[in-house]
């Protein structure tokens, strides 16, 4: 039987400070990246290769939400709280419930207030969240077999 794997964007669950995020933009709504490569490589004149391990586990999580998303209120509140009281460092997590991918940081904060504009169409708001300790596991998605009626 053929094997089919499915990603369901509705089953990608994201939370910031324990608050579920909703109102994702169409297209890419989450992007996760580490700040540094895990290893750097040097090749000597004799062709011998050495590598150095980086212990930098920081990174960024970029969320793209619809301009109308109520989660913009949550992220704005965290940014303002951090700016005024230095108390906007919160856990952030993302899990693909239709697969095995998980993202987590115990120390995430909004880098800056995003740009904003208004127009005839509903736009997107892009939030950049810096993380001091970004744990990433990129997994596949669950397989389901096609069912044939006989």
Task: Outline the fold blueprint.
Elements: E1 3-5, E2 12-16, E3 19-20, E4 30-34, E5 39-43, E6 49-53, E7 59-66, H1 71-85, E8 90-96, E9 102-110, E10 124-131, E11 135-137, E12 143-145
Antiparallel strand pairs: 1-12, 2-3, 2-8, 4-7, 5-6, 7-10, 8-9, 9-10, 9-11
General description of the model:
The strands form three sheets. Strands 2, 3, 4, 7, 8, 9, 10 and 11 form an eight-stranded antiparallel beta sheet that branches. The mean pLDDT is 94. The protein has one helix at 71-85, and strands at 3-5, 12-16, 19-20, 30-34, 39-43, 49-53, 59-66, 90-96, 102-110, 124-131, 135-137, 143-145. The chain has 150 residues and is mainly beta. It has a single domain (3-35, 50-145), classed as Pnp Oxidase, Chain A.
Give the number of DSSP strands: 12
Any idea of the CATH topology? Pnp Oxidase, Chain A
Give the terminus-to-terminus CA distance.
14 Å
SS-based class:
mainly beta
Q: Quote the average pLDDT.
A: 94
Rg, alpha carbons: 20 Å
**Residue runs with pLDDT of under 50 for 5 or more positions:** none
Largest sheet: 8 strands, antiparallel
Range of strand content: 35-45%
Number of domains: 1
Number of helices: 1
Shape type? globular
- Name the helix and strand elements from N-terminus to C-terminus, one letter apiece: EEEEEEEHEEEEE
Share of helix, binned: 10-25%
Quickly give the CATH architecture.
Roll
Identify the CATH class.
Answer: Mainly Beta
């Amino acid at each position: 039987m053929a094997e089919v794997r499915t990603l369901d964007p509705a089953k990608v669950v994201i939370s910031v400070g324990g608050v579920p995020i909703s109102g994702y933009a169409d297209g890419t709504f989450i992007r996760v990246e580490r700040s540094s490569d895990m290893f750097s490589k040097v090749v000597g004149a004799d062709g011998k290769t050495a590598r150095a391990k980086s212990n930098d586990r920081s990174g960024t999580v970029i969320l793209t939400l619809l301009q109308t998303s109520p989660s913009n209120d949550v992220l704005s509140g965290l940014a303002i709280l951090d700016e005024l009281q230095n108390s906007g460092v919160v856990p952030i997590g993302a899990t693909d419930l239709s697969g095995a991918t998980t993202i987590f940081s115990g120390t995430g904060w909004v880098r800056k207030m995003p740009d904003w504009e208004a127009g005839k169409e509903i736009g997107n708001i892009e939030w950049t969240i810096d993380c001091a300790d970004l744990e990433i596991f990129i997994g596949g998605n669950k397989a389901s077999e096609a069912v044939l009626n006989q």
